[in-house]
Amino acid sequence: MNDLIRLQIIKSLTTITERVWNKSQDSGIAEMEELPVPHNIKISNITCDSFKISWEMDSKSKDRITHYFIDLNKKENKNSNKFKHKDVPTKLVAKAVPLPMTVRGHWFLSPRTEYTVAVQTASKQVDGDYVVSEWSEIIEFCTADYSKVHLTQLLEKAEVIAGRMLKFSVFYRNQHKEYFDYIREHHGNAMQPSVKDNSGSHGSPISGKLEGIFFSCSTEFNTGKPPQDSPYGRYRFEIAAEKLFNPNTNLYFGDFYCMYTAYHYVILVIAPVGSPGDEFCKQRLPQLNSQDNKFLTCREEDGMLVYHHAQDVILEVIYTDPVDLSLGTVAEITGHQLMSLSTANAKKDPSCKTCNISVGR
């Protein structure tokens, strides 16, 4: 595409960029009114690591423009990504090209993040200095979530370490006794879906958006049963696997992450076919073959459904519909409540090579 301009921002260009930038701030190098000032800036085609930008300019001296200076900055807020590379310049120099132009780069763009952008036109002189315009107005925008393409990259990375499959027969959910008492008293005995927290990948399209109920299915290697310890509470709801995962449900890959630990988490979503959760996932997440994938399978053998889960990753399964407690049992576990293993709002390790892809974290 002719309008696709990749702005390769690498450290070797930092000093050049800074020199250009400092010169543009020097009021003595040029009369700013000589070049048209960009106005009516428009941002479009926003992805998790790119966007298109265009603007209008007066025709006066327009033919003298050789470069654009783009001031791209992260809008700081209380939830800002503290892991953003701080040594990479975000004041970009690009050759003047037909608009709109594409700004792309995983070094300085992160998914689901608010940015501000302003533009300046410039004319490079024979001595290497620049004549520059005044700055445009400042525009704000927010980058998008991971697309299915990005999630498929995460999926492929997760498949590498999933390990062999172990048989299981129940899904389970640990909570405090008060949680189950509240469900019985206020929700007619049915656990209700709630909005997923912001744990996992920063660009995950399910964080803060998908409604569901978290379940686990991991088993102990030596017993084949659920572990007796839990980070979420001493009371456990157990339900037969076929009640949640069967030929009338679809299975989706949601995320792959770790929390500065050696073990990794995979988030899967189970949604009844045609349900609101199913429609949400169908548009945003890679769908898995329920009978043949590396994480969680449901197969018919001798007239019965048989279930297996991956051994070497911790599966977090989200079921998108309400679940009545009468479909299973609630009992107190005999193990410990290991709060250190909780993933509630846990942030992903942005430096892990196993579970990160080459876009914003």
From TrEMBL:
Q: Which InterPro entries match?
A: FN3_dom (IPR003961), FN3_sf (IPR036116), Ig-like_fold (IPR013783), PHYHIP/PHYHIPL (IPR042868), PHYIP/PHIPL_C (IPR045545)
Q: Which domain of life is it from?
A: Eukaryota
- Name of a matching Pfam family: PHYHIP_C
Q: Where is the Fibronectin type-III domain?
A: 37-146
Alphabetical GO CC annotations of the entry are: cytoplasm
Which family does the record assign?
Answer: Belongs to the PHYHIP family.
PANTHER family hit by this protein: PHYTANOYL-COA HYDROXYLASE-INTERACTING PROTEIN-LIKE, PROTEIN CBG15099
Q: What does this protein do?
A: May play a role in the development of the central system.
Q: What is this protein called?
A: Fibronectin type-III domain-containing protein
Originating species: Muntiacus reevesi (Reeves' muntjac)
